[in-house]
């Protein structure tokens, strides 16, 4: 029943689907899931390919080792190899250039020593042919360093075998890998061949009694099967990841919509109707109490506070109608709103007495009973401190209501995680989704990493901050400005980084400070503000604010306060050293 009420309240806010917070959250979730899936796909495919490749190379190496033992013990592979290599090395370059001709083959077959071993060649060829299982080629060859060639001794290719003594040029690096092998690990080399594509060649040396390498038993395996297996694996994993991405996006979208978007829209609509009903003096209604938001977070807290505010205002209105006139009733309402507004801002100092890595102090003095300025600070986690300084357009109760709603929405978005630029972007979309009063707010947002002093900040049309570095005075820091929050949907904000060293101070304020006006209509200005800060730049944050307020009061004297005066000072002391 209460869920339906929230959905009805949220439906009052109409926004193009592609610009809604739900759609943007869904897009972000899908992009993140796709990126994670691609990383998983690349890593998984790589690991799978690595495993398959190791299996192939190990199998090829085992084949060469077994075949070399058979060739060494079952036939005189050593003697045959030495005779063929002896003939090859004795050839002139002109004779080697005749390779592939009948004349070249006779240089080996007509040699008396090789002729007597014709039976050895046939025996070796027959023995090695028996190892043509799950491999492409098995052959006996030797590398010649002088000519950088691989000389074929015995070839088992059934279609076009190389004759003993035929050769082909090889890569220097690949040849050295075989000749310099120390017997550890698996001996193989992978290379791309013109006729066969990517091939893996595994080998095992055949040595004579003195330990000299006379030949290599070599096995070739095509890598096409490895590539095919990897492609098939990538396709299967890709389909699974696509399905998982769709399910995750659907689930996250539903959760975000139910836990954030709908409650925010419902509260915003209720706030607008509340203001509208107040403006036309409509009968009191339970605008917030009937929402029934039970999210267990700041949104539920906002709904409860707004409901309590509405009940308190209603009760006081009923009482004031019986005992006082309209002016007195308005005074009482504004007094109550002042207390509610004051309770919304952090007002207990020091706020984190157990923390020694920073000190902070802030104040807000409204020009009227309620104001549109607000500040905030909160620990996002044990190592990150969120800072906010903002100024709502307009004055009075509407600005105060807009201020409270903006503060809770901004803090809620910040606690969900994200950078200052993302916080401003999502807050802007949430406020723009239902901003019939066409109000806006300037905001400065920063996130300080307490362990390192790294401050990441973004500015949405707010005043420039003041920065004091260790041993230096306060100076105006002209950061990059973005558009105000609530002014236009679809705005993207940029952020920047500052490195705070221990002893650094950050002073934030609203335009009510530099625009404080004297009786002679002269503005306090930025230069007087910098001078007030540097009266005692080493003072504590509370004394820094006192010095600025004293300077402002001394300047305006008896002139009426025109705008809210809101200030915040942070001193970064650095992470405590380990004992």
Describe what you observe in this structure:
This protein has 579 residues and is α+β, with helices and mostly antiparallel strands. It has two domains: 30-228, PAS domain (Beta-Lactamase), CATH 3.30.450; 346-579, Phosphatase 2c, domain 1 (4-Layer Sandwich), CATH 3.60.40.10. The chain is 47% helix and 19% strand. The chain has helices at residues 2-10, 21-74, 77-90, 93-96, 102-109, 112-115, 118-129, 172-179, 224-279, 298-323, 326-344, 396-415, 420-432, 525-533, 541-556, and strands at 137-144, 149-155, 167-169, 188-193, 197-207, 213-222, 358-365, 373-381, 384-392, 441-449, 454-460, 466-468, 474-476, 495-499, 504-509, 565-572. It has a six-stranded antiparallel sheet with strand order 3-2-1-6-5-4. A hairpin with a 5-residue loop joins strand 5 (197-207) and strand 6. The longest helix is centred in the middle third of the chain and has 56 residues, at 224-279.
